[in-house]
Amino acid sequence: MERNLTLVALFAALIAALALIPKFSLGFGVPITAQSLGIMLCGTVLGAKRGALAVLLFLLLVALGLPLLAGGNGGLGAFMLPSSGFLIGFPVAAFVTGLIVEKWYGPSLTLVAAVASVIGGIVVLYIFGIIGLSIALDKSLLESAALVTVFIPGDLIKAVLAGFITSGLAKARPASVLSRS
User: Fold this and answer.
1) Nearest to 46 by CA among 94, 13, 91
2) How far is the C-alpha of 3 from the C-alpha of 6, rounded, in Å?
3) Tens digits of per-residue pLDDT, 78-134?
4) What's the pLDDT at 23?
5) Beta-carbon neighbour count of residue 72 at 10 Å?
6) Segment 27-82, tens digit of pLDDT
7) What is the C-alpha to C-alpha distance for residues 101 and 94, in angstroms, rounded to an integer?
8) What does the longest C-alpha to C-alpha distance in the chain come to?
9) What is the DSSP code (8-state) at residue 22?
10) Count of CB atoms situated within 10 Å of the CB of 138
């Protein structure tokens, strides 16, 4: 129990630390950040439940006003921005990513974690992000989907990185990849 709490807190801190990489804001109000890599790693390393809990802890800290989002944003107002759909989708994305890694024992953990990151950390997350963007900008779902295509190359790189990081961690410290225990 204590180990789980520590890891949940550690991964919430990882997501926050990934906000320190300078953001690049796009004209429609959604920044390009490294935080989605943290969401993917929450799922691939911690598994579905613990990964989602880590993200929920992170979002609670943001809601309480800590400036943990890219650009130093925080507070309840962060959930009213065009990027709010992505924030709401973070825990679901981590959960789906973790669930895939827990259930699919494919040819290699690198491949499984990368594919899980694409499905959970990109496809699922984009569903929430596109809906939130559509509502915030009063655009159609198709128009909003077109806006987020700029994120796809970077997020694919993050998914591959999540695969390699998870696999490397499993080789170095097998017990630390809870999605496989």
Assistant:
1) 94
2) 5
3) 999 888 999 999 999 999 999 999 999 888 999 999 999 999 999 999 999 999 999
4) 62
5) 11
6) 666 777 899 999 999 999 999 999 999 999 999 999 999 999 987 889 999 999 88
7) 11
8) 48
9) P
10) 8
Q: How far, in Å, CA of 10 to CA of 171, rounded? A: 20
CA distance 49 to 12: 14
Residue of 139, 143, 165, 128 lying closest to 34 (CA atoms): 165
Could you tell me the two tokens for 133?
């963007």
85: CB partners within 8 A, 6+ apart: 128, 129, 130, 131, 132, 133, 135, 136
Helix (H, G, I), strand (E, B) or coil at 69: strand
Full-model pTM: 0.93
- pLDDT exceeds 80 at position 26: no
Closest CA to 16 of 47, 45, 57: 57
Give the tokens for residue 15: 């997501």
Residue 40 token pair: 């993917």
Q: Which tokens is 43 given?
A: 């799922």
Q: Going by C-beta distance under 8 Å and a sequence separation of 6 or more, which residues neighbour residue 38?
A: 11, 14, 15, 17, 18
What DSSP state is assigned to residue 178?
G
